[in-house]
Design goal:
alpha+beta, three-stranded antiparallel β-sheet
């Protein structure tokens, strides 16, 4: 009888549940919120690609016409004008904003855009601050070739 009292298993499953349930919830949070982070990072990259193409499509008309005896050049307009166009495109998305925009090279043939997207974590937001930010960067270059995009 005394042996039964020493090896009592009452409450053993409670300890197991108390250790396993938080671990499983943490792993589920990492999987769900990790996938959410990847999806929003891809979305930020997609918006950045669109904004970079929009900025790169803002061509300098005077340089294109070849004024004052200069040869015609296909270059991006001034950074302010190109970035304003990119900013307008990004503003169409409620949860995104333009992080940075610049003409990426001295020849004014590439535009680099960084876009930030805000999202909320599902399970990890219960433990930490639920607001997270994903970013995406893209570069668009003006191509003047008529050979299917090959310079």
């Amino acid at each position: 009888m005394r042996w039964l009292r020493l090896h009592n298993d009452q409450g053993g499953s409670s300890v197991f549940v108390a250790l396993v349930v938080p671990t499983v919830l943490l792993l589920a949070g990492l999987v769900i919120d990790g996938n959410l982070a990847i999806a929003h990072r891809q979305r930020a990259a997609d918006i950045a690609e669109q904004a970079a193409r929009s900025a790169a499509n803002t061509l300098d008309i005077e340089a294109l016409r070849g004024s004052a005896g200069h040869t015609a050049q296909v270059v991006i307009a001034e950074a302010d004008m190109a970035c304003a166009r990119a900013r307008r495109l990004v503003a169409e998305y409620a949860d995104a904003w333009l992080g940075s925009c610049e003409i990426a090279d001295s020849a004014r043939r590439s535009a680099r855009v960084r876009v930030l997207v805000r999202y909320q974590a599902v399970l990890l937001g219960l433990v930490t601050d639920p607001d997270f930010t994903a970013s995406g960067t893209a570069v668009a270059t003006v191509v003047t070739s008529s050979r299917g995009g090959q310079p």
